[in-house]
């Protein structure tokens, strides 16, 4: 499984012959790429309806959009998505060689275009090369979405979904900050953790090396990786 971070919460994930782009938002300082320069993904996964997570969803018209049902309906009606899969919390859908499981995130979801769309529950995704199950086989990546620290990380996601790698927001203000994200890393028990959703705008200023130090203190069984802009990591 190949993981590439394009800044903010935007990740490009390859599972076998299947490619998935999560939360496409390329107007951020941690990517040098434009949407047109990205290899066309097979699937676009959207965690919630805020503009800094769905801004460029309409640029990938050949992809199937996977999103909470309300967000899927919105991008189909307003952003020209031709093929959508609406799903909800707890569900798993098969996306080519990947299995995508949606889990809740503690956040909000909505967009205002002169009139407001209520866009359902915000979410995170577990992307796995096998159907998630109690035996914990397979390789999986958990994109936590925009979230605060929540007990489900410890009580549900870690023991039952068993992620091998986790991307956590550290920018504070709208999501967890560094200290809470380090606690999340401890609760999730994943070998590999990555910071995201930071340094995109003034309220989100954060030093990812402080996150590395906090993970070392609070989650010593996890290794924190700070990816370079448009940097990749291979998850075996």
Automatic annotation (TrEMBL):
Biased composition (Basic and acidic residues): 217-228
Keyword Repressor recorded: no
Alphabetic keyword roster: Hydrolase
Keyword Hydrolase: yes
Matches recorded under Pfam families: Lactamase_B_3
GO MF annotations, alphabetized: hydrolase activity
Residue span(s) of domain Metallo-beta-lactamase: 7-197
Protein name: UPF0173 metal-dependent hydrolase C448_07062
Provenance organism: Halococcus morrhuae DSM 1307
